[in-house]
């Protein structure tokens, strides 16, 4: 077991929440030490870093011309940014807030009750709860607690608190509808049929996860990290957060703090989208920072192919662009397991599948 994991166990810390609430805590323990270079962060007032906004109502119920314009806009967004903020998406703001409240309710449970949900390190388990990332692999402990629940193709839920299952079921359904609309538009932006990604990726059986993250105040936020830089393994990820910012995305060599409307979804492309498009559309590097003011809660909803789908660059795109496939074909489940392995700790999985 890694030394940082031993440090965590010997200190009797079962969650970052309990550590952060310790009256004796005045600095970041050495096992959590992670320095962020503030010079790498983008100026939020610089127009170069104004995050694109996509009005989903124009995709869902706009005129043909309005939809066509959004699809054209997505070409540049997906090529140059790989992320955007979706507004007017149809998910009630009350449901979004209810999901955040339900997550807060779970993380507020006594540690003994939350430990009922502890499991191994398999990302495909139905439920997963823990702290940091993977205590057997971590070189630096993370300033976060988390849970993950699979919500599609089978729906599973935390059974505490009492309201969680009902809220997460509705939230999962509504966010899946948004994700499928986005993949249709992305298909069109690639010059493919609207259902190309849906059908090729077997998204009728596609993997959807509900991942809640809890980042309590940190006494030295510049010396700790919530989640280090990484890309997501699926196709697209939707994310919401409470009123505390902390999500940062890499753009033009700088880290940009995401500060969007409370009723918007942050949407980022993920690894299987980059593979499918043969590198035309980029999977986004992002991370979670912490603060010393208040607890941040974020909820990520990754959407991917079915776990048994073989992912490879689309032949139609390779032929049209006159390019050879840049990535080796791989089963999605095997890709996830490769990404979660120790050899890829804070590294790019793409390095292992380049053709």
TrEMBL record:
It is an enzyme of class 1 (oxidoreductase). InterPro entries: DIOX_N (IPR026992), IPNS-like_FE2OG_OXY (IPR044861), IPNS-like_sf (IPR027443), Oxoglu/Fe-dep_dioxygenase_dom (IPR005123), Plant_2OG-oxidoreductases (IPR050295). Residues 205-305 form the Fe2OG dioxygenase domain. It holds the Pfam family DIOX_N. Its EC number is 1.14.11.9. GO terms for molecular function: flavanone 3-dioxygenase activity; L-ascorbic acid binding; metal ion binding. Keywords: Dioxygenase, Iron, Metal-binding, Oxidoreductase, Vitamin C. Belongs to the iron/ascorbate-dependent oxidoreductase family. This is Putative flavanone 3-dioxygenase.
């Amino acid at each position: 077991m890694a030394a940082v994991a031993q440090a965590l166990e010997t200190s009797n810390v079962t969650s970052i929440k309990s550590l952060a609430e310790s009256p004796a805590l005045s600095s970041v323990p050495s096992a959590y030490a992670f320095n962020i270079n503030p010079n790498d962060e983008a100026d939020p007032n610089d127009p170069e870093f104004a995050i694109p906004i996509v009005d989903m109502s124009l995709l869902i119920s706009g005129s043909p011309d309005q939809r066509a314009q959004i699809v054209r806009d997505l070409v540049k967004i997906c090529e140059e940014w790989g992320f955007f903020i979706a507004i007017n998406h149809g998910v009630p703001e009350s449901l979004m807030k209810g999901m955040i409240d339900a997550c807060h309710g779970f993380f507020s449970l006594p540690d003994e009750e939350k430990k009922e949900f502890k499991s191994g390190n398999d990302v495909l388990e139905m439920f997963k709860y823990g702290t940091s990332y993977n205590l057997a692999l971590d070189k630096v402990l993370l300033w976060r607690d988390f849970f993950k629940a699979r919500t599609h193709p089978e729906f599973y839920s935390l059974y505490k608190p009492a309201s969680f299952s009902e809220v997460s079921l509705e939230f999962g359904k509504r966010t899946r509808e948004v994700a499928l609309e986005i993949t249709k538009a992305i298909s069109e932006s690639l010059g493919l049929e609207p259902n190309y990604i849906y059908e090729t990726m077997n998204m009728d059986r596609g993997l959807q996860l509900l991942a809640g993250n809890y980042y309590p105040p940190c006494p030295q936020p510049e010396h700790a990290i919530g989640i280090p830089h990484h890309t997501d393994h699926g196709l697209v990820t939707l994310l919401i957060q409470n009123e505390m910012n902390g999500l940062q995305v890499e753009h033009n060599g700088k880290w940009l703090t995401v500060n969007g409307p409370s009723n918007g979804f942050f949407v980022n492309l993920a690894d299987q989208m980059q593979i499918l498009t043969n590198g035309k559309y980029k999977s986004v590097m992002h991370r979670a920072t912490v603060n010393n003011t208040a607890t941040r809660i974020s909820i990520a909803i990754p959407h991917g192919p079915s776990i048994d789908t073989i992912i490879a660059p689309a032949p139609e795109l390779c032929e049209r662009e006159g390019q050879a496939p840049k990535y080796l074909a791989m089963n999605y489940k095997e890709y996830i397991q490769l990404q979660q392995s120790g050899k890829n700790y804070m590294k790019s999985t793409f390095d292992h599948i380049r053709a």
